[in-house]
Amino acid sequence: MIADKLQQIGAATIGNVRGYGRAGIMLFGALLGKPDIRKGFPLLVKQLYVIGVLSLLIILVSGLFIGMVLALQGYTVLVKFGAEQMLGPLVALSLLRELGPVVTALLFAGRAGSAITAEIGLMKATEQLSGMEMMAVDPLRRIIAPRFWAGVISMPLLAVIFTAVGILGGHLVGVDWLGVDGGGYWSAMQANVDLYQDVMNGVIKSMVFALIVIWIALHKGYDAVPTSEGISQATTQTVVTASLAVLAFDFILTALMFGG
Amino acid sequence: MYIAFYSFRGTTALAAAESINVSDILIDIQQLTFSRGDRVIYRDLNMQFARGKVTAIMGPSGIGKTTLLRLIGGQLKPDSGHIMFGNEDIPLLSRNALYAARQRMSMLFQSGALFTDMTVFDNVAFPIREHTRLPESLIRLIVLMKLEAVGLRGARDLMPAELSGGMARRAALARAIALDPELILYDEPFAGQDPISMGVIVRLIRSLNNALNLTSVVVSHDVTEVMSIADYVYVVAEQTVIGHGTPEQLRAHPSPLVQQFLKGEADGAVPFHFKAAPYEQELMELVG
Amino acid sequence: MTTRKIEILVGGFIVLAIAAFLLLSLQVASSGVAGTGQSYRLHAKFENIGGLKVRSPVKVGGVVVGRVAAIELDTTYYRPVVTLEINKSYSNFPETSTLAILTSGLLGEQYLGLQPGFLDETVEILADGDYIEDTKSALVLEELIGQFLFNRGN
User: Fold this and answer.
1) Which of A88, B26, B220, B232 could cysteine-pair with A185, CB 3.0–4.6 Å?
2) Is the pTM value of this prediction over 0.90?
3) B170, B204 contact by CB (below 8 A)
4) Cα angle at B223 between B217 and B227, to 5 degrees?
5) Residue C144 at interface with chain A, using a CB cutoff of 8 Å
6) Does A134 touch chain C (CB under 8 A)?
7) Which residues neighbour B257 within 8 Å (Cβ) at sequence distance 6 or greater?
């Protein structure tokens, strides 16, 4: 009994480490070697469109609503202390430090990450990756690398857009609807938000999240069992693993950035 | 010109009948052993594919015929043995040398493996665009030529999803010959085709082989089609070659296994039943 | 979808992101008093800094002129030393200026109130690295209550 359990733990650990190893080798193979700008750039632009532009709508709408809800909730609490002029900093700091990077990463994992996993998994299942390899074109460089860079570039941009739209949404509810002083909204925000401490740390967070989400999505797709249920499993795993990893890393990064 | 009589390892009785010039061998597989996990797929496999000929590899499903093509393409590494492609030993090549060697071969996958996000035209143009810096006008010319060869010039603007299975395979064939390779590996080119497209593909393999002076390796279990186009046939089963020769020689092959395969008998040397414990014994286990 | 259209949309996406970033850095974050070279440093010793924190504002008559850059403990006298970073454009405070730890509102944050002092021939202007001698420490509620009770007892 105990031996069986031990064996299970051992097997799971070995499986995990192997997974990390394969993911590492995949990324290494994709990023190694000199990039060919002439061929690479159009591919990158195409992926920026698929990964970035197509995620824009969900980011804009979610950002707006989260900003509005934050303002509404914040106002009802702050007004009890007569501190409604602090609504600006509340909305801005929550979005900049936490909600912007984290919610963008979660939405990104659901919207773009799952799509990437499914796409690459299907390419594998229909032998497109194999076929490419036999045409002497390395799928790691042709397929994985542009998606990786497009993800790493897109997500911080999406997070910044999310945050900005959220703050405007907060303004919409707080100032235009609930009647907080407009000048106070911005000036209190400016007095409490620091460009480096808050804005830049938020951007750094979303860069780290981008790396995690896109890497997991690519690896799960590339490593998927090339059957229908294999791909559906890989897609689910991408969303679950990426979301959990984002939340875990968010805690670590927050502790490092704001904890000390 | 020096002509050497090549004696095949293994079944010498037949080898004496067939003579092949050594320098005319494009691919020489020597003592190949490959296993997946604990399961041995090939043990000490020897095969030669002559330049400019259509060589077929036949055998029952599930014995790893596709695996053999992947081994030749360098996508899998054997446990031991050599796969000589010209003067190069595929398993020992560095990454760059392997990619250079792959530019001289192509593979037609069972599914066609067309890129689903590109039109037929772009699919055929893909290897040309990747490996050359030809101007777009010249690429267009080449692509139209290749599509004409497979009879799909009119379908160039369709997406792969809009093609029938047979058309997709022909489009993939046009892509496979886009860079005028020396060698084409066909993976089950006849599987799942209606008789008409089967006939088209049989004709294409033969005519492309002659017109472009290609070397073709066809992996298949469709006996009639293979026997009609192949210059030389290997029958693979039980981890190794069980018989080889020209189609005529094979029909007269003494091995019961080869005969069973060629005639398509349900039971015989290759048992109908997958390896299992005796039936009665397992039934009794349930009762007891 | 043509390549041109994709490129235009991607371009639009990047421009939108840059605009959002500019909004965040100019409209949302405090612009100024952070960069090196545009500010100079002053020090001040207090008895007690209360709830003062790094990055708390330094105000003159309610206008922010700088921020607290560091808070350390002087190990000889065990008194807190606060380092202020003051904007270069406010560079002529006399050395008779006083510094007090104040609180904005009942529950608000604590900040440093700088009260510029008088100026005559014997008084010099505070320069980078100087100490502000005249400081008033934070009011600690417990001490206030204690004092109040003590006074009533008399």
Assistant:
1) A88
2) no
3) yes
4) 65
5) no
6) no
7) B235, B237, B238, B242, B243, B268, B269, B270
For residue A218, what are its two tokens?
Answer: 């690519």
The DSSP secondary-structure symbol of B63 reads: S
Q: Which two tokens stand for residue C57?
A: 């504002």
Of C10, C24, C107, the CB nearest to A49: C10
**CB neighbours of A208 closer than 8 A, spacing ≥ 6?**
A249, A253
**Which pLDDT score is estimated for A171?**
92
* C-alpha distances in Å from residue A159, one per residue of A15, A108, A135, B257, C79: 34, 10, 38, 65, 44
| C58 phi/psi in degrees, rounded to 5 | -110, 125
3-class secondary-structure state, position C94: strand
- Asked whether the beta carbons of residue A128 and residue B113 sit closer than 8 angstroms, the reply is yes
Check if the beta carbon of residue A187 is closer than 8 Å to that of residue A92.
Answer: no
A183 Cβ neighbours under 8 A, 6+ residues apart: none
The structure tokens listed for A214 are 């896109």
pLDDT tens-digit profile of A146-163? 999 999 999 999 999 999
For B90, the token pair is 């595929």
Return the ∠ at Cα A61 (arms to C4 and A119), rounded to 5°: 55
Do the beta carbons of residue B236 and residue B57 sit within 8 Å? yes
Q: What average pLDDT does the segment A168-174 reach?
A: 92
Round to whole Å and give the CA distance between A51 and A217.
12
| DSSP E strand stretches across chain A | none
Nearest of C136, C35, C130 to residue C89 by alpha carbon? C35
Q: If you average pLDDT over residues B66-79, what whole number do you get?
A: 87
**For chain B, which residues lie within 8 Å of any Cβ of chain A, measuring from their own Cβ?**
70, 73, 75, 99-100, 102-103, 105-107, 109-111, 113-116, 126-127, 130-131, 172, 175, 185
pLDDT digits (tens, 9 = 90+) for A92-124: 999 999 999 999 999 999 999 999 999 999 999
Three-state DSSP at C138 gives: coil
With 0-12 / 13-18 / 19 or more C-beta atoms within 10 angstroms meaning exposed / middle / buried, residue A170 is buried
- Mean pLDDT score across all residues of chain A: 90
**ipTM value greater than 0.85:** no
With an 8 Å Cβ cutoff, are C20 and A193 in contact? no
Distance CA A256, CA B257 (A): 70
Q: Which chain A residues contact residue B185 at CB under 8 A?
A: 134
Q: Which residue has the tokens 């192509």?
A: B106
Backbone angles phi, psi at C22, to 5 degrees: -65, -40
Chain B closest CA to A124's CA: distance in Å? 9
pLDDT, mean over chain B: 82
Nearest to A23 by CA among A242, A220, A241, A232: A220
| A149 and A31 Cβ atoms separated by less than 8 Å | no
Across B78-125, where does the E strand assignment appear? 80-85, 88-89, 105-108
Question: With helix as H, strand as E and coil as C, how does C25-37 read?
Answer: HHHHCCCCCCCCC
- Over residues C72-118, the pLDDT tens digits come to 888 888 888 999 888 888 888 888 888 888 887 666 677 888 888 88
Q: What are phi and psi of A212, to 5 degrees?
A: -65, -50
pLDDT band at A221 (very low <50, low <70, confident <90, very high): very high
Tell me the DSSP string of B228-248: HH-SEEEEEETTEEEEEE-HH
A169: DSSP letter: H
Q: Which residues contact C37 (CB under 8 A, 6 or more apart)?
A: C88
C81, C45 Cβ separation under 8 angstroms: yes
C15 touches A at CB < 8 Å: no
